[in-house]
Amino acid sequence: MSLRHTYTLFAPIYDLAIGRASEGLRRDNLRRLDVTQGDVLLAGIGTGLDIPHLPHGPCYIGLDLTPAMLRRAQRRSRDRDDVRLHLGDAMQLPYRDASFDAVVLHLILAVVPQPERLLAEAERVLRPGGRILIVDKFLRPGQRAPLRRLLNLFTRHVATRTDVVLEDVLACCTQLHLHLDEPVLARGWFRRIELVKR
User: Fold this and answer.
1) Whether the predicted model's global pTM rises above the 0.70 cut
2) Domains in the chain: how many in total?
3) Which residues, given as ranges, of the chain have pLDDT below 50?
């Protein structure tokens, strides 16, 4: 089953399943955005759960692969003239190099089949000195986590991966520097990450 098909089916219940549990993480991470920044990309914006927490000031581009998710994001953004929504693949971003001052990746790196490709694309479209703000679930290098790895055999085909190691993904992006790495939920499985482009 394709990612688009899976999230088309998941769209009607996504907010119920994810919204309340992730609201605080999203809100706190988005407070880190510099309101003087000009252009911010939210790759994998989904149903737009980030939109109510976006500070006014920057211009936001929200991109998602699934029309059903974007329709819900459209409803959330109707009172905001600073948010534009695009249909597209986060692993092949339809934007020029160095187009954005910041990129937000909330619960998307562990969803896509090739997180390295997504992070490389985020690096490409980010301006030098720009930041990537991430909240997601990651295993630590060498962490055994047998239950999570076993769970991944099922979940990777349905909605998300549970075996992504951030440090392995980050190894492909030579211009990104790890600025912040802090545990936020589930004994550090969920982490808040901030990367800066050199």
Assistant:
1) yes
2) 1
3) none
